[in-house]
Amino acid sequence: MEECSVTQEQVKSQLREIIADLVEISDFADHDDFNRDLGIDSMMTIEIIAQIERKMNVVIPESALPEFVDLERTANRIYALVTEQSGTSAAVQA
Known about the structure:
Number of domains: 1
CATH class: Mainly Alpha
Strand content: under 5%
Radius of gyration: 13 Å
Largest sheet: none
Distance between the termini: 19 Å
CATH architecture: Orthogonal Bundle
Helix content: 40-55%
Shape: globular
CATH superfamily: ACP-like
Order of helices and strands: HHH
Number of helices: 3
């Protein structure tokens, strides 16, 4: 079984970079609403998802999309998917 070497903080950091590059805003809070506070629309969400899948080698199911409302919730969901898809539990040590 392959061990997941990424931490939850690394997922959040990489996700923050992806979002910051796309919306050209580098200073935003973990709980800022993607749509209301950052102006992320559905097309931008698709681009974010594509970059996450490519950079983190993870498949994001459509059922996860409603959870992508802010950085904190999105990072938590992506981390769970990464650990699940790598064959490890979500309790990987940071």
